[in-house]
Amino acid sequence: NAGVTQTPKFQVLKTGQSMTLQCAQDMNHEYMSWYRQDPGMGLRLIHYSVGAGITDQGEVPNGYNVSRSTTEDFPLRLLSAAPSQTSVYFCASTNNRGDYYGYTFGSGTRLTVV
Amino acid sequence: GQQLNQSPQSMFIQEGEDVSMNCTSSSIFNTWLWYKQDPGEGPVLLIALYKAGELTSNGRLTAQFGITRKDSFLNISASIPSDVGIYFCAGQGRGSNYQLIWGAGTKLIIKP
After folding, report:
1. How far apart are CA A85 and CA A21, in angstroms?
2. CA angle B25, B20, B71 (to 5 degrees)
3. Which of A92, A102, B19, B111 is paired with A66 by a 20 to 30 Å CA distance?
4. Rounded distance, CA A26 to CA B107, Å?
5. Which of B38, B98, B100, B101 to mutate to test the interface with A (most CBs of A within 10 A)?
6. Rounded Cα–Cα distance for residues A24 and B7 (Å)
7. What are phi and psi of A49, to 5 degrees?
8. Interchain pair A106, B42: CB under 8 A
């Protein structure tokens, strides 16, 4: 069981470039989400999905797109990278079992935009 | 919107000391979660709390769900070097569709 797999682990982009951060889970979790982590600010939700074909915006969605064509995959697209998007990005998933909301996190993608 | 205040922001402790950190919310939560993040890794769930007043232990870690449902604390007894990292609290309110509200984290550092 691999859990949540994120690729790449590190990435440097130039301002204006686009890229896709990959996230895959093999636990058949229905809920998947993307967070960004900045120093002193905890985790902020970018986008989330409650199932294949369903996505919604989180707290900081601007500049990012997502899609959920399968249960397993939830890619995050940066449309035109900006220095303000320099951050560590985490993908997380969970399954709804009553009130249990213990997310499983990937190991993160550290993105630098220059 | 909902906010979580987590304190302290950082702690410098000696090995063997007990550690205490807490989170307070402006709103009522139905679930409190405590996570730990090691450098270069994603957060890992330590303890989950589901009922007001609940006290739950996981080894040397103990967490409580406040009676008002607006706060939670985490204690670590007899700290060891592998306890270093960032500890996050997270809360979830009813009807929030899986979404969690996160504290800013408490960074635990062991003094040499």
Report:
1. 13
2. 15
3. A102
4. 31
5. B98
6. 33
7. -145, 135
8. yes
For A96, nearest residue in chain B (alpha carbons): B98
Nearest to B89 by CA among B29, B13, B39, B18: B29
What tens digit of pLDDT does each residue of B29-84 get?
988 999 999 988 999 999 999 899 999 999 999 999 999 999 999 999 999 999 99
pLDDT of B96 reads 60
Encoding tokens for residue B59?
């080894």
Q: Is the pLDDT of residue A100 over 60?
A: no
> Which secondary-structure segment (H or E) carries B42?
none
Mean pLDDT of chain A: 92
Token couple for A1: 């069981």
Query: How does residue A102 score in pLDDT terms, banded at 50, 70 and 90?
Result: confident
- Tens of pLDDT along B3-18? 789 999 999 999 999 9
Measured between CA atoms, the residue of chain B closest to residue A39 is: B104
How many helices and strands (H and E) does chain A possess? 0, 11
Task: State how far the alpha carbon of A42 is from the alpha carbons of A56, A72, B80, in Å.
Answer: 21, 26, 24
Average pLDDT over every residue of A25-50: 91
- Distances B93 to A32, A112, B19 between C-alpha atoms, Å: 18, 34, 27
